Amino acid sequence: xxxxxxxxxxxxxxxxxxxxxxxxxxxxxxxxxxxxxxxxxxxxxxxxxxxxxx
Length: 54
Description:
The protein is mainly α. It starts with a helix and ends with a helix.
């Protein structure tokens, strides 16, 4: 019984899972934003490069 309580009370695994969920959410948001606005992002990037080179 003590071993089961020890396993349940272990928060290291919980912290890792929460971190991975948060990281996955951030990556998913960045991917969705990039996919949605890829044309605008590319246009802005090339505008900045054009201004630097000219």
